[in-house]
Amino acid sequence: MWSCMVYNETDDNVDLRLCQDFGLILSVFSLVYLIVCFPVGLCYNALLVVVNLSNKVTMTMPDVYFVNIAIAGLVLNLVAPVELLGPSFTRWPMWEYNNEIYITLLILFNISSLVIMYSTTLLSLDYYIERALPRTYMSSVYNTKHVCGFIWGGAVLTSFSSLLFYVCNHVSTKIIECSKMQNKEAADAIMMFIGYVVPAVAVLYAFVLILRIRKESTPLDQDSGRLDPSIHRLLLASVCMQFLLWTPYYMTLLVHTVGGAPGSYSNRQHLTTYFFLRCLSVLLAFCSSFAIPLMYRQMNKNFSHKLQRLLKRLHCGDQSCPHERSTVQQVVT
G-protein coupled receptors family 1 profile domain location, by residue (predicted)? Predict the structure, then answer.
């Protein structure tokens, strides 16, 4: 029963009940996520990717970042069922995953988290550029491939050092190189720095610049080349939502880095509370793959039009639809 195995019948019944209550709460939250949030998030993430990639002509740079976030959300959707049905979350473990499965899930989770945080950071910085200089590259997608390659390649490369610590922490000590690197605290510290501290500083810097621009109204504010105001609200809301959902997870990494391994805690009640908060923070991180596509669907006015064009195109089949011909003519002119 998740972490309640450390208790026995001679222990204080209050601590045992607290542990069981924590396990029950996690089980309920996990089932709610799997029944409600998981299918909705999977559907809307896939829909966001398909609709935008099928309308590449009308994509803007914010759409590119949201597509990357949606792809990372799909990866999290694949990791979530295995993680939430594992022994850490449920009082009735459906399976005991071994080290290889754990490392694979950890690699996918870390890379997805980095892609989400980097996309969010670049989104806020580009939002400042678009506010300061309208009709810039943020309004086009000519560098889409470079942006996507930078985000995913950067996430893989920057997470390699921390992942090496995680891998060496779970392989045989017969490997001399890895026997010197069995330090999970170092891995968590690296992930905390590259996955949260650096993006948080960049986002705060972008917000300071954006507030400074808003205080200094210029004739450029009336430029028709600017993004729709609803997109501005979407960008700010998405950045705030991402940090709100991911901050608890990185705070648990900070606690693990500063306080050492959980097994070194003398008080088992503190150990149980730590594991509960750690699992709850992971669950909140999974919720980011559910909240962001819903926000994008509700706040982006162009998404419904793109979806309608895609449905009409599927309805027409191989024949060219009248609305497609008119759209192509407008783009050519």
Answer: 44-296
